Amino acid sequence: MAAQDLSVFVRHRDDGIASMELAVDGIRCAGCMQAIEGGLAREPAILAARVNLALKRVSVEWREALLRPEAVVEKLAALGFKAYPFAPERQEAGAASEERYLLRALGVAGFASMNIMLLSVAVWSGNAGDIDPTTRDFFHWLSALIALPTAAYAGRPFFESALRALKAGAVNMDVPITIGVVLALVMSVAETWNHGRHAYFDGVVMLLFFLLIGRYLDQLMRRRTRDLAGNLAALKAETATRLAADGSTMVMPIAAIAPGDLVLVRPGERVCVDGIVETGRSEIDQSLVTGETAPVAAQAGERVHAGTLNLTGALTVRVEAAGQGTLLDEIDRLMDQAVGNRSRYVRLSDRAARLYAPMVHTLAASTFLGWLAFGLSWPEALMIAVTVLIITCPCALGLAVPAVQVVAASALFRRKIMLKEGDALERLAEADIAVFDKTGTLTLPEPEILNPLALPAERRAEIGALAAASGHPLAQALARALGVSCAAEDVHEEKGQGLSAGEGEDERRLGSIAFCGAQAEATMVAALHPGASLIAYRHGSFRTVLALGQALRPQARETIAALRKAGLTIAILSGDRREAVVPIADTLGIAELHAGLRPGEKLVWLERMAAQGRKVLMVGDGLNDAPALAGAHVSLSPVSATHLAQAAADIVFLGESLAPVAAALTIARKARRLMLQNLWFAVLYNAVAVPIAIAGLATPLVAAIAMSGSSLVVTLNALRARAAGEAQS
């Protein structure tokens, strides 16, 4: 097959630096990350290599004159990792395929272990009594007939991982597993061939069964269910209407728009570029970008951003950036950077496993050589060494974290909290500061009427019908708050002012304070509800002013109090106006707040906190929160959030209440304690079991039973995480 031309996937810079993003198969742990980054760093032409452990992607920069892009892929192949240009749909399909394979392998190993155990029970009973050697050999060969193809199929994930590591000149946890499985199978076949009393096919298959449980649970938790590029693409315009010097217009691809060009943005269209308004007046809905719910006036001299929605009037915009360099492009870049940085977090099980492989190899080799030195025959010494490999198998270590994750995830699910990242529980348990966005997070996403007493019941229907006739976001929000969907007829809309219907004494007006002549009423309402959006209504002599704003989420006060009690500091980072943020902060007693922040500025604040050693829990819901959600130590998002915010968050919670945030923290801290207990148990188990195996007092079968028992203890301890969820119910 001809080699694929990778030049189309390369990004070029003016200084001769090229970069490319590659999806890489086989990245499973921090060791893989270190092997890739260290291996690529040894190539002189490669300037930087960064592994995104969560997404299994590698970003590489190199000097274009010294290296072809194909050479980068070849270098990764030499390190034992298959790489290809990143394509979201291919990566998602690959993850789903691997998950299905692990589930099939788990089923095969479980079915085979049950059948082999039935045969082994007969052999054990016969060895204690007086089994006929021919019958014993027959049972052993039947076991071999089941175990050998099962091991070849079910053990493939471990064998392939071990081979990749060895090809790269490294070792990982799968190397001793592979050695132990292969040696145990070889010794069992040799024992069966020589009519021996013992074979260990049952122990090998049982070992693979328990290991596959851990691997499948880990894959289930690690699998990503998001496509960041697709979420952002929904906001990015493909074309723009360019204005020529003679006033004519032409629709052109966004890539053909250059800084300095003039583009026309009609009402109802999304702004396609970052730039300055030259002519026209309108209102811009910036909610997806800044979190600001109230439309912002746009006129000559005002800056507008790509992705925002033009509401009422046509605008002519002088382009500053189109495509690359826009605020949306910045969000995309910040997301990639933030997710990459967070993926460098090393899980508890990965940290514990770093010493595992060299320690086990050393113990097994020393045992083999030691018994040879004491005069034991090499088959007997090898059998004891295999026993050491099996009894120290990382089954308990492999299950220590995933088992707790599954039980804790179930407890979270009962609280309407969905865990998206396998290591999110560990990171959440470490959090010492909680940072909240305001709009849609501390408050409900839909504006509500903050002064309902100003609205007589008999006026609700007529005001709602008038509001439903407008496409303005505030009018639509008012209609939804009043529960009215049928619009009034014969409504006239004055751009930037409001709506009117009827004539003379029956004229009804809804809109700005000046349009409705309600200045006196507005003064009182503004004093009572600072920061709220005001909508006036007039019908004949009746005038009223309604304050629309975000009401606090249910249990917001209790949640903030619970987080403080748990030892967390509380802060607000918002893209909304300061006058809209301060009342919410005062109500909740939050002293630290920063308003009017762009997405990059939010991320800068989080980086400052991280530099001070803080473990930041970020809770947000908007597009402008996405980089901060991805860059925080751990993040939560309500289900009402934008798709991109949900994608960037580690945990998503359902419902309007903010209580799941405190519940998730409680469950996470309990789960982390159980993970540590399981890891310590695995250490203590090895401290007791290994000396017994080294002394030759255990067989591979006893080692497999002990290993299975340790896994059972770890699983039973993990079930205690359920109690944390019940306590929060």
Report on this structure.
- This protein is α+β, with helices and mostly antiparallel strands.
- It is 52% helix and 17% strand.
- The strands form 5 sheets. A 7-stranded mixed sheet has the order 15-27-26-25-16-23-24, with helices on both faces. The chain has a 6-stranded antiparallel sheet with strand order 7-6-8-14-9-12, with no helix packed on it. A 6-stranded antiparallel sheet has the order 17-22-21-20-19-18, with helices on both faces.
- Helix 22 links the parallel strand 23 and strand 24.
- Helix 3 packs antiparallel against helix 4 (133-154), helix 12 packs antiparallel against helix 13 and helix 21 (556-565) packs parallel to helix 26 (659-694).
- The two termini are 58 Å apart.
- The model is unreliable at 224-231 and 338-343 (pLDDT under 50).
Helix content: 40-55%
Number of separate helices: 28
Approximately how much beta-strand content do the residues carry? 15-25%
Shape: elongated
Strand order of the largest sheet: 15-27-26-25-16-23-24
For the sheet with most strands, the description reads: 7 strands, mixed
C-alpha-based Rg, rounded: 32 Å
Tell me the distance between the termini: 58 Å
Show unreliable segments. Answer: 224-231, 338-343
Q: Helix/strand-derived class?
A: alpha+beta
State the total count of DSSP E strands: 27
Q: What's the average pLDDT?
A: 78
In short:
The two termini are 58 Å apart. This protein has 729 residues and is an alpha+beta fold. Helix content is 52%, strand content 17%.
